[in-house]
Amino acid sequence: MSKAIETLQAAQQRAMAGRPAVGGFPYLAATLRRAGVNRNIWDLPSCQSIYLTSEGPVVMQGTPLLTGIADIPTFDRDALIRALRTDQAGNSTFPEFLLSTWKAGVVRYEVDLEARTVTYLGCNGEQYVESYPEVKVE
After folding, report:
1. How far apart are CA 2 and CA 134, in angstroms?
2. Taking phi first (over 0 means left), then psi (-120 to 50 degrees means alpha), and beta for anything else, what does residue 56 get?
3. Which helix (H) or strand (E) holds 18?
4. What are phi and psi of 113, to 5 degrees?
């Protein structure tokens, strides 16, 4: 196992252990940033996640949201914002969040841990950018 994978896994474990139920994403992001992750790129519906770290790039393959062939939902900014607010309030699991963002037409999202922004992208160039608050982690 590479140093990049070891560092990423340790940071994810620390983040999940200390993450609050409400507002957990900024804590996770701050923990990853502190461990040297500067960017995280999610592709939906495959649930492939790429982490760009100071130790090197790492890919993680999650459980895909669907199999076979499917139409891509139309990008729906309002539905995306509802999915975000539901998750931020602690009222959805991460898999539920991913499915909701997919249903809102998101095919990819990119987390810039330095700028503290997440950019949600549709397949026709649509995008929605949201900033998240800075959180101090120990």
Report:
1. 29
2. left
3. helix 3-18
4. -75, -20
Mean pLDDT for 37-66 is 97
> Which residue has tokens 């139920």?
21
Give helix then strand counts, H and E, for the chain.
Answer: 4, 6
Question: For residue 121, which of 53, 43, 55 has the smallest C-alpha distance?
Answer: 43
Locate 104 and state its tokens.
């809102």
Q: How far is Cα 46 from Cα 86, in angstroms, rounded to an integer?
A: 22
pLDDT tens profile 10-32: 999 998 888 887 778 999 999 99
Percentage, residues of the chain above pLDDT 70: 100
Which CATH architecture group holds 3-131? 2-Layer Sandwich (3.30)
- Does the pLDDT of residue 138 top 80, yes or no? no
Q: List the beta bridge partners of residue 127.
A: 121
Cα–Cα distance measured from residue 90 to residue 78, given in angstroms and rounded to the nearest whole number: 19
Question: Between residues 25 and 72, which one has the greater pLDDT?
Answer: 72
Q: Tell me the pLDDT tens digit for each residue of 97-109.
A: 999 999 999 999 9
Q: Residue 131 is encoded by which pair of tokens?
A: 């900033």
